[in-house]
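Action item from last meeting closed. Structure (206 res):
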């Protein structure tokens, strides 16, 4: 290795490939070090633990996307072009223009197959601020919806996004030539209708 940065990148690349291939629990630090062609001690030195390595992998992939999301939302708020559709676009479309899009489907699919005890703290750390900002923006244009309801609807939006990234084509349909942009436009139309739906009335609660 020629530098600390290159050692870290080799470890991240190796760990990401192995986590996707075998899963988090089945991947050892020793196997990661072997694939990265570095000393086992380097994994502890740079990342502390396997959990720290996984956190670094997620951070590396999602940081540029989250940055672009917040910048897009800031731009909307400055120009006053804020409505449900533009907010949803600001959240989803940075995925399309990101260089990380090719790495995300496999990583996301594997991440969400891991136990919540492993993944939820990491996802909260990486996405908590972004989710809060977008739910807050949606709350301003949908003031009639309780905050809890907004979080649930945003949760369903994220689920649709993950399904689109990992499965890509609905069950029952053959191969599709649609681009990610076309798929996310479908999701925006669907999610917009969901966000604009009336809130739950007290008589509907069970």
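Sequence:
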């Amino acid at each position: 290795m020629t530098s600390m940065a290159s050692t870290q990148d080799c470890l991240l690349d190796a760990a990401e490939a192995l986590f996707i291939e075998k899963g988090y629990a089945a991947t050892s630090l020793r196997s990661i070090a072997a694939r990265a062609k570095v000393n086992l001690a380097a994994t502890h030195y740079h990342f502390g633990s396997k959990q720290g390595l996984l956190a670094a992998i997620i951070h590396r992939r999602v940081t540029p996307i989250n940055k672009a999301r917040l910048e897009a939302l800031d731009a909307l708020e400055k120009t006053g072009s804020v409505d449900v559709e533009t907010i949803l676009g600001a959240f989803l479309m940075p995925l399309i223009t990101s260089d990380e899009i090719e790495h995300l489907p496999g990583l996301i699919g594997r991440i969400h197959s891991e136990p919540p005890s492993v993944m939820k703290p990491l996802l909260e750390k990486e996405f908590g601020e972004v989710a809060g900002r977008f739910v807050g923006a949606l709350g301003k244009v949908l003031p009639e919806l309780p905050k809890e309801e907004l979080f649930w609807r945003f949760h369903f939006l994220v689920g649709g996004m993950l399904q689109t990234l990992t499965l890509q084509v609905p069950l029952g349909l053959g191969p599709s030539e649609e681009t990610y942009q076309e798929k996310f436009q479908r999701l925006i139309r669907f999610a917009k209708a969901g966000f604009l739906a009336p809130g739950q009335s007290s008589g509907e609660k069970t």
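Note appended to the action item: The radius of gyration is 19 Å.
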